[in-house]
């Protein structure tokens, strides 16, 4: 018999498996083999981390955006993003949220890079050493994050201070997904925001705690089709406003639910959609049929308007109220009754001998 030996994939742990058998060493992207260590690697070094975790986990970052079957990860330095498909995520992709910390490996396919073997990290693992200044500023988004506008060259978004000294150009600060107070918020060019400034240990200033200043609108859910739906609001004439389920906060929606949301205009597609959708009311019971509504109107006890009073009950031609049962005799019924009357009964049969006698 031929024995088939299963080769370990690059997404399997290095070291030994549960049975104690050593796995074949595979060189990782840092030039080290799985399970090997280097004395020169520091405690926080990416090379040391890659060697300890094996081939697959060589990078760390944050979930930046989620689509139908894929998403983007922002790196630790907040200056690049990488694509990943849900099939390479170790776990249930529906539990992913923007801003979550993950670790992953990189796969190069020509000039393009994609993440492999993505898994979540405990919250706070990538806590950055930044000092947040207490002042709150007003500004305008000059450039969104690239995962929301793939046409731009730079990944990081840019927010510019609204005011500055006389004759001075207002300063601008870069930001990423971790800079947003609401990680589901879709900031676009021209959005008015409030923010603070943080300073890294290297002295780099970034915008943080960014909050969009927008008008929130209320409407009801009109239709749901899979992972998207439509609201009873028209940003464009004749077109119901579209929303994606990834923009819904706090549970699922049903047709008829009342929601609150913000309208955004996508720079690349030139289309409108709803973001930051929040459920504020349950679906109302279906309306009563018109025939029942009309009947209820006649039963109204409101004395303010004119009323109709019945002064005489309707009567039939014979002077009776309602419908009385009537029996009509047909010609067939009359003939049957006559035949029954002419048929000899037991008394007539019994007296026949007497007559003969």
From TrEMBL:
Residues 58-120, 216-279 form the CSD domain. Residues 1-53, 312-357 are annotated as: Disordered. It is found in: Cytoplasm. Pfam families: CSD, CSDE1, SUZ-C. GO terms for molecular function: RNA binding. The keyword ATP-binding does not apply. Residues 287-327 form the SUZ-C domain. Transmembrane segments: none annotated. Gene3D superfamilies: Nucleic acid-binding proteins. Keywords: Cytoplasm, Repeat, RNA-binding. GO terms for cellular component: cytoplasm. Its main location: cytoplasm. InterPro entries: CSD, CSD_CS, CSDE1, CSP_DNA-bd, NA-bd_OB-fold, SUZ-C. CDD domains: CSP_CDS (cd04458). SUPFAM superfamilies: Nucleic acid-binding proteins. It comes from the Eukaryota. The keyword Acetylation does not apply. PANTHER family: COLD SHOCK DOMAIN-CONTAINING PROTEIN E1, UNR PROTEIN N-RAS UPSTREAM GENE PROTEIN. Belongs to the UNR family. This is Cold shock domain containing protein e1. It comes from Ornithodoros brasiliensis.
């Amino acid at each position: 018999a031929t024995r088939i030996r299963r080769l370990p994939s690059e997404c399997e742990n290095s070291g030994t498996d549960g049975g104690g058998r050593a796995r074949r060493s595979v060189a990782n992207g840092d030039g080290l083999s799985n399970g090997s260590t280097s004395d020169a690697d520091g405690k926080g070094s990416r090379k040391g981390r890659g060697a300890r975790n094996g081939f697959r986990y060589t990078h760390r970052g944050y979930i930046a955006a989620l689509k139908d079957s894929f998403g983007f990860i922002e790196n630790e330095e907040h200056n690049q993003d990488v694509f990943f498909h849900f099939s390479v995520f170790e776990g249930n992709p529906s539990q992913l949220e923007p801003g979550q910390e993950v670790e992953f490996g990189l796969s190069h396919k020509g000039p393009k890079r994609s993440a492999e073997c993505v898994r979540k990290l405990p919250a706070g693992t990538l806590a950055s050493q930044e000092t947040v200044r207490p002042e709150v500023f007003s500004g305008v988004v000059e450039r969104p994050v690239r995962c929301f506008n793939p046409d731009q060259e730079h990944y990081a978004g840019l927010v510019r201070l609204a005011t500055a000294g006389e004759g001075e150009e207002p300063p601008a600060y870069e930001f990423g997904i971790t800079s947003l107070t609401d990680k589901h918020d879709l900031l676009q060019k021209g959005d008015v925001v409030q923010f603070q400034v943080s300073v890294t240990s290297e002295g780099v200033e970034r915008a943080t705690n960014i909050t969009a200043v927008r008008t929130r609108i209320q409407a009801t859910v009109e239709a749901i089709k899979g992972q998207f739906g439509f609201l009873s609001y028209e940003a464009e004439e004749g077109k119901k406003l579209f929303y994606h389920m990834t923009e819904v906060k706090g549970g699922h929606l049903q047709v008829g639910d009342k929601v609150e949301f913000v309208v955004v205009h996508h720079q690349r597609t030139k289309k409108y959609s709803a973001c930051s959708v929040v459920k504020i009311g349950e679906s109302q019971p279906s309306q009563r049929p018109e025939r029942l509504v009309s009947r209820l109107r006649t039963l109204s006890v409101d004395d303010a308007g004119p009323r109709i009073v019945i002064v005489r009950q309707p009567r039939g031609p014979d002077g009776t109220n309602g419908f009385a049962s009537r029996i009509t005799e047909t010609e067939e019924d009359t003939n049957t009754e006559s035949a029954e009357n002419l048929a000899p009964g037991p008394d007539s049969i019994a007296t026949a001998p007497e007559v003969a006698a």
